[in-house]
Amino acid sequence: MIFEGSEKKVELVVDPKVGSLRKLGRPFWEKVVERAEAQVLSMISSEGCDAYLLSESSLFVWDEYFTMITCGQTTLVNAISQFLETISKDDVLSLIFERKNEYFPRHQHTDFYEDCRRLNNMFSGTAMRFGHADDHHLYLYHMNKAYLPSADDCTVEILMYDLQGQGKEIFSCFNQSSETIREKTKVDQIFPGFHVDDHAFRPCGYSLNAVRGKEYYTIHVTPEENGSYVSFESNINLEHGVQPTLMRVLEVFQPNAFDVIVFRPSGQKEKDYDFEVNGFQKKTTVIQKLSCGYDVSFTYHFRKPKEIQAATLLEDF
FRET pair for 5, CA 20 to 30 Å: which of 54, 104, 108, 247? Predict the structure, then answer.
């Protein structure tokens, strides 16, 4: 079985004059999600955010913006198009669309270039790649519109590959319950005081949403033998840098390689670009100031192999 864990993501901010996006209600967001070829499984709320757990990743809705993350063969641009049937594109203040390099790109319904052409039919935007095309990389499209994010508008994404040790053992086990996964990994306790919603997929796979006020963190695990992948993302305060959060997450999942993507409002003093992780070698560092108001860093880290490996037998062709 082939399942693409690598994700697509959009963050879209609207003018406050349109009213609260949360008040659009669950039926509205279910329709948006369905256009991306996914389904809402459950929902939790805090005083500042609604968190929808999806069949393919997650959706978070605040009063003035939303973040949607989808994996598999989803078509996230369709969800954006559906949203714009209700909210005018003229009321969109900021849009950032991401697409990570995929394990199985030939199984996708679209590629990044096609997505950009469709987005440019709705907006005027700029597209770029972080990293080398033949290695770990991130594609990013942003709307060409001046935007001033708030000083605390920071996001960290930790994307992990090829799980080892406990991470591989726990998440690759068929038909694990979400309760068992939480008990063994403590993923619901990475940060204290969060309200957690999670789901264990059959035969394997796991997703978690957690909210506290306007803060969130989310985890998605695709433990496929031919392409294990985990994503962690949060908007929690980065006052103490990325490293404390990164070390907690790596301890749980024990990957052989990982990428770290950090968004910060432009002009903030950056102290996270040069961090090192014991046992890993940094291969790529990309730093880019976006004209839409953010500075973005992308780093790719890998663990040096300790043994000679045999070839992998391919059966899915």
Answer: 247
Using H for helix, E for strand and C for coil, what is the string for 200-264? ECCCCCEEEEEEECCEEEEEEEECCCCCCEEEEEECCCCCCCCHHHHHHHHHHHCEEEEEEEEEE
d(CA 114, CA 127): 12
pLDDT for the residue numbered 42: 98
Q: Under 8 Å CB-to-CB from 200, ≥6 apart: which residues?
A: 176, 177, 178, 180, 181, 206
Of 22-36, 181-195, 218-232, 259-273, highest mean pLDDT = 22-36
Q: Which helix (H) or strand (E) holds 170?
A: helix 165-171
The pLDDT tens digits for 153-184 are 999 999 999 988 888 888 887 878 999 999 99
Q: pLDDT digit string (tens) for 192-225? A: 999 999 999 988 889 999 999 999 999 999 887 7
For domain 8-302, give the CATH superfamily: S-adenosylmethionine decarboxylase (3.60.90.10)
Contact of 54 with 39, CB cutoff 8 Å: yes
Mean pLDDT of 287-303: 95
With 70 as the cut, is the pLDDT of residue 4 above it?
Answer: no
DSSP class of residue 93?
E
| Predicted structure pTM score | 0.94
CB atoms within 10 A of CB 7: 26
Residues 38, 56: contact at Cβ < 8 Å?
yes
Contact (Cβ atoms closer than 8 angstroms) between residue 188 and residue 200: no
List of residues 6+ apart from 312 with CB closer than 8 A: 226
Dihedral sign of CA atoms 185, 190, 192, 197 in order: negative
Q: For residue 122, what pLDDT is reported? A: 96
Residues labelled catalytic: 4, 7, 57, 71, 207, 220
The Cα 216–Cα 130 span in angstroms is: 25
Distance separating alpha carbons of residues 255 and 185, to the nearest angstrom:
14
